[in-house]
Every structure is written in C-alpha cells, then in structure tokens.
Amino acid sequence: MELRGEFKSITEVLDLLQIISLGKKSGEVNLRSSEGSLTIYFQDGRIISFDSSISVLRKLKERVKRGEISTEEAANFLIHYVSFWDDGRFVFTEKPVSVEAIGNAGTLNVMMEFSKEVDETPPTVQKLLKENTYMTLTPSIEEEVTIGPLEWKILVELAKGRSVRDVIFNTCPSFGEGTKKLEK
Fold this sequence. Notes:
Layout: E1 2-7, H1 10-22, E2 27-33, E3 36-43, E4 46-52, H2 55-65, H3 71-83, E5 88-94, E6 105-106, H4 107-120, H5 123-130, H6 149-159, H7 164-171, H8 175-183
Helix pairs in contact: 2-3, 3-4, 6-7, 7-8
C-alpha cells in the first residue's frame, strides 16, 4: 500500500500517523517541505527510527543514539518540527523495514503528548519557534534574575547566536520543558 499527497497543516500529518498506528503498519513516511525532508520508519505502527536532510533533526537522532533522550521524545520533537511547516508533501510506503531501530515509540502516545504541549505552549513562544527567531541579550533588567542549569545552557546557546528552534531541539530534554524554560 502507498499513500501520497500534500498537507497544509500538521492535522493532516497526524491523521496519517494515526492510520499507521491504528493499522499497526510497517513502512516509512517521507515528509518534504521547502526546509528539507524527514523520513520516519514504523514497525507494527510504532516509530523505530528516522532520517532527515535537516541538520537539527540529524543532531536529534545523534542525541537518541547517545542516550540523551528517548526515541519517544525525539519523535515528539519531530512532530513539533513538522508543525512549523506551512505545507508539504507526504508519501507512506507500507513495506518491511530494513533500517536499524534506534528505539521503539508509541505513535499515539507521541501524538497525544504533542497535542498537550501545543495547548500548553504560550503564543509568544510558539511564534519564536515558528519564525525560528534569533535572540539578543540586553544589559538592563528590572528584577533579580535567578536561573537553573538548563536555563543557563539555553541562555549560553542563544548568546552564541543559535536560533530558538536549534537551541530547544539540541539542548533540552523535552520540547515541553524547553518551551517552559524559554518562556521564563
């Protein structure tokens, strides 16, 4: 079986992932936009690996391989990343998967966590991520600032000139925690 088409929103991608999960399908989904491509591999409806032409997503896979984050958390990051695309194309090819698994993530669990985090992410942070904004620091503050280790790490990466999206995807243990720290 092969499904192909275009998507204008993340909802259409989520519908495709739901079909794969509920149908316990094995194969691969290739998603393409002007930003690049992402291929997600499924075994019996569960996400087992991914590949991408997008630098930040390749680094995300390396984080999984090093044991810094779980496959489930990486899959959640992937869906968030695709949600920033205005449109794209997809192809799902049902077939035996021959890639090396880097983990095993429940697709529906990932989708539910994604939906929860989208609802909880403040609009200002959503805008920073969607626009892939770069930030600068200012020397003036009105209140005393106390930050923890992860917030410091985020601040240092932003000061190095990295985009908000790159910092969240490459530094934080989860998308939700990263957006909460960024808001602070």
